[in-house]
């Protein structure tokens, strides 16, 4: 179930980033009335992911013993780091 949600999240964000980029290049398939709202949504998502990066950075490093990738967090948010944390938590349970 979680993997399905993460896949859907990544697909939705991919569409958002493509439409936002196309809007910035003035070749968007969306009507111009919607471009402002799409870009506002993209900026809000980027801000949330920026805050998320700094909020989860220490927790991620503690559990996974690796650094959190800034670019992937900005693009996918928890769709990037949650599967990695789940994997390390499952491994830790198997060891105990």
Give the N-to-C terminal Cα separation: 25 Å
**Main β-sheet, in a few words?**
none
Low-pLDDT stretches are: none
User: Helical percent range?
Assistant: over 70%
Report the principal-axis shape.
elongated
The tally of helices reads 4
| DSSP strand tally | 0
Order of helices and strands: HHHH
Quick description:
By secondary structure, the protein is mainly α. It has 4 helices and no strands. The mean pLDDT is about 90.
Explain the overall architecture:
The protein has 96 residues and is an all-alpha fold. It is 84% helix and 0% strand. The chain has helices at residues 2-24, 32-64, 70-76, 78-95. α1 (2-24) packs antiparallel against α4. It is elongated.
Features of the shown structure:
96 residues, mainly alpha, 4 helices
